[in-house]
Amino acid sequence: MESLNFSYLANFWSPRMLEVNLLVFLNLAGALALGLLVGYERSYHGRAAGMRTYGIVCMASAALTVFAGYPEFWWGGTGHSFSTADPTRVVQGIVTGVGFLGAGVIMKEGLNISGLTTAASIWASSAIGIMVGIGFFGAAILLALLSAALMMWGPKLESRLPSRRALGVSLVFTPAFNPDETSVKQTMREWGYMVAEGSLNISADQHTVTWTFVMVALVSKPQAYSLFDLSRKLRELAGVDSLQISHARN
Length: 250
Prior knowledge:
Layout: H1 7-11, H2 15-44, H3 51-66, H4 87-103, E1 107-109, E2 112-114, H5 116-134, H6 137-160, E3 166-173, H7 181-190, E4 193-195, E5 201-204, E6 209-217, H8 227-235, E7 240-247
Antiparallel strand pairs: 1-2, 3-6, 3-7, 4-6, 5-6
C-alpha cells in the first residue's frame, strides 16, 4: 500500500507561506487601526455605526483585497497549476450574497438602530472563509481572532474613550398645541444637550404633532441626568402629551 504523502499539506505551512501570512496580518492590523480611528469619530458624534462596525468592515475589506496580490501562493503555492480558475469571480459573488444577508439583520425602530456590528461580523466571516478556501490559513486564523476580540472588547474600549451620549426622542404634542422649535432647542441646551443637525423630523395628523429627533450631549459622558430623569424633564415640556426616549445607537 502506498504511504500517504503529506508534502502537499506541508506547502500551506512552509516558511515562505508563513511569511506571506505575516505580511497579510500586518495589512489587516493596519486596516483595523484606521477603521477604528474613523469609527471613533462617528461614535463620538452620536452616529449609529461606531468603532466595531468600522473596524470590522475595514479589516475584512483589506482581507478580500490583499490576497489577490499573492496569486502564486494560492492553494499552498500551487495556484499557477489552476490556469483556468479565477477565485476573484467567486469572491465577488460571495461578497454580494453575504451583503444581502447582512442587511437583513439590521433593525431600525424609531431612531434606534441595532444589528450593524452583527452585519459587519457576518461579512467578515465570509472573508475568513474565503481566506481559508484560498489556503491562507494563518491569516484567516488571525482575522478570526481579531474580529472576535474586537466584538468582545470593543465596547470596553469605547467606554474608556471620550464620547457623547446620543438619545433618540419622539415627542407627541397635545391637540391644537403649536410647539416652538427655538424654545425646545434652547431648553435642550440648558440640560446639556443639542438637537443633532438634520435629525429633526416633524409629522402631523388632524389632531397631533409628533417630533422625532436625536439629542446629543454637548460634553463627553454627561452624568447630570439619567435616562429616567430626562424622560421626566421631557414630559414636563409645554404641550407634551406622550414621549418615547431610547439610546440612538446599539
